[in-house]
UniProtKB/TrEMBL annotation:
<dbReference type="InterPro" id="IPR029479">
    <property type="entry name" value="Nitroreductase"/>
</dbReference>
<dbReference type="GO" id="GO:0016491">
    <property type="term" value="F:oxidoreductase activity"/>
</dbReference>
<protein>
    <recommendedName>
        <fullName>Nitroreductase domain-containing protein</fullName>
    </recommendedName>
</protein>
<feature type="compositionally biased region" description="Low complexity">
    <location>
        <begin position="326"/>
        <end position="344"/>
    </location>
</feature>
<feature type="domain" description="Nitroreductase">
    <location>
        <begin position="159"/>
        <end position="205"/>
    </location>
</feature>
<feature type="domain" description="Nitroreductase">
    <location>
        <begin position="213"/>
        <end position="304"/>
    </location>
</feature>
<dbReference type="Pfam" id="PF00881">
    <property type="entry name" value="Nitroreductase"/>
</dbReference>
<dbReference type="InterPro" id="IPR000415">
    <property type="entry name" value="Nitroreductase-like"/>
</dbReference>
<keyword id="KW-0560">Oxidoreductase</keyword>
<feature type="region of interest" description="Disordered">
    <location>
        <begin position="324"/>
        <end position="344"/>
    </location>
</feature>
<comment type="similarity">
    <text>Belongs to the nitroreductase family.</text>
</comment>
Length: 344
C-alpha cells in the first residue's frame, strides 16, 4: 500500500498554514511596493487630490456643515494641486477639475454664511486654491430629492431575475454594449470616489482561452462565452495601510454593478472567481502583461443565453431575510491582569 505525506497526521494542517503565510507575505509585498502608500506621483498623486476634494464635498453635503472645516485638508490639497503636472492626461485633469469645483463650492457656501474666515485660512491660501473659472459640474454638491429615485419594482425585478448563465448562444455580443455597461458601472461607489477599478475585454477564441486557462471554474462553458472580462483594481489609488483590502471591496462593487448593467441589456453573465495561488496569479500576469499595481478581482463570462439554456436553481436561504437592530456589546470587559512585581 502506498502512502503520501498527507496521510501523516497533522501534515495537511502544517502545509495549509505555511501556504497561507506565504500568500499573505506575497500580498503584503505587492501592496507595499505598488500601492499609493509610499510616494505621490502619477495615479498615486491624483488619488490623494481626489480623496481630499471628496472630503470637502462630503463636508458640504452634511445637514449642518461645520464652519470653515478643513484646516488640515485645504493646505495639503494646495500642495498636491501644485504638484499635479500639466500633462493633459485624463485622470490628472479630472482630479484637478474635481478639486477646483469642490473648492469653489466650499468658498461660495461659507462666504454666503457671513461667518468670517479663520486665521489659518489666509488670503494667500484662498487665492491659491480658488480657480478663476471652475467647472462646478465636476465637484461640489448638487440637489438630491426623493422624486429622483428609480422605482422599487423595476430595481427588484432586475436583481431577482438575474441568474448565472453557463450555456451561451453563438451570436456575438456587440462591444458597444460592453462599453455602455462599463460606463454605468463607473457610477459604483468607491472609497473617497477614487475610482480605481479597471476592465479588460477578451474576445472568444485564443485571446479569451489564454485567460481562462488560469481560472478553475469555467470548464465546459467558458470558451463559448462571447467575451471574457477581467476586472482589476489599481492599488495606486490606495493610500493608507488600513486600505489594504479596500481594492477588493471597491472592485467587487464595480463588478456587481457591471454584471447587473449587462443583465439589464439582455446579456447573460457568469462571475468567475479569482481565488487562486500566487503562482497562477503570476502566470496570468505574464500571459497578458498585467502591471503589478493592479490586483485581479474576478473574471466574468459574457454572452447571450442560448434559447434552450438552463440555469442552476441556487435557492436563497430564507433566514438571510431576517433583519435585526444591532447594538454594542453589553458584555463587561475583563479586568486587566497585572503581573505581581517581584519582591526586592
Amino acid at each position: 500500500m502506498k502512502y503520501s505525506i498527507d496521510d501523516v497526521p497533522g501534515t495537511v494542517r502544517v502545509r495549509d498554514e505555511l501556504l497561507l503565510a506565504h500568500q499573505y507575505i506575497s500580498d503584503w509585498k505587492q501592496f507595499r511596493r505598488h500601492s499609493g502608500l509610499f510616494g505621490a506621483r502619477g495615479t498615486r498623486l491624483t488619488a490623494r487630490v481626489v480623496m481630499d476634494a471628496h472630503r470637502i464635498e462630503k463636508g458640504l453635503a452634511l445637514r449642518a456643515p461645520k464652519e470653515w472645516f478643513g484646516k488640515d485638508v485645504l493646505p495639503r490639497l494646495k500642495r498636491n494641486l501644485d504638484r499635479l503636472p500639466h500633462s493633459g492626461e485624463h485622470h490628472v485633469e479630472h482630479a484637478r477639475s474635481m478639486a477646483h469645483g469642490a473648492l469653489a463650492a466650499y468658498f461660495a457656501h461659507f462666504d454666503a454664511s457671513g461667518v468670517p474666515a479663520p486665521k489659518w485660512l489666509t488670503a494667500e491660501l484662498r487665492t491659491a486654491l480658488l480657480p478663476d473659472s471652475p467647472d462646478l459640474t465636476l465637484g461640489g454638491t448638487k440637489p438630491r430629492t426623493v422624486a429622483s429615485f428609480p422605482s422599487v419594482e423595476a430595481f427588484d425585478n432586475l436583481i431577482e431575475s438575474r441568474e448565472s448563465v453557463r450555456h451561451f448562444a453563438k451570436s456575438a455580443v456587440a462591444l458597444s454594449d460592453i462599453e455602455e455597461a462599463a460606463r454605468i458601472a463607473d457610477n459604483s461607489p468607491s472609497v473617497c470616489n477614487r475610482q480605481g477599478s479597471r476592465i479588460r475585454v477578451f474576445a472568444r477564441g485564443p485571446a479569451a482561452d489564454a485567460l481562462l486557462k488560469y481560472q478553475n471554474g469555467n470548464t465546459g462553458f467558458g470558451a463559448d462565452a462571447s467575451f471574457t472580462l477581467l476586472i482589476t483594481h489599481d492599488l495606486e489609488t490606495m493610500v493608507a495601510p488600513s486600505e489594504r483590502n479596500q481594492a477588493f471591496v471597491d472592485g467587487g462593487l464595480y463588478a456587481m454593478t457591471l454584471v447587473y448593467a449587462l443583465h439589464a441589456r439582455g446579456i447573460g453573465t457568469c462571475c468567475l472567481n479569482w481565488s487562486t495561488t500566487q503562482a497562477k496569479d503570476r502566470g496570468l500576469r505574464r500571459e497578458i502583461g498585467l502591471p503589478p499595481n493592479e490586483v485581479v478581482i474576478m473574471m466574468v463570462a459574457v454572452g447571450y443565453p442560448a434559447e434552450d439554456s438552463r440555469v442552476a436553481v441556487s435557492s436563497i436561504r430564507q433566514d438571510r431575510y431576517a433583519v435585526g437592530m444591532a447594538a454594542p456589546s453589553s458584555r463587561p470587559r475583563a479586568a486587566r491582569q497585572t503581573a505581581p512585581r517581584p519582591a526586592r
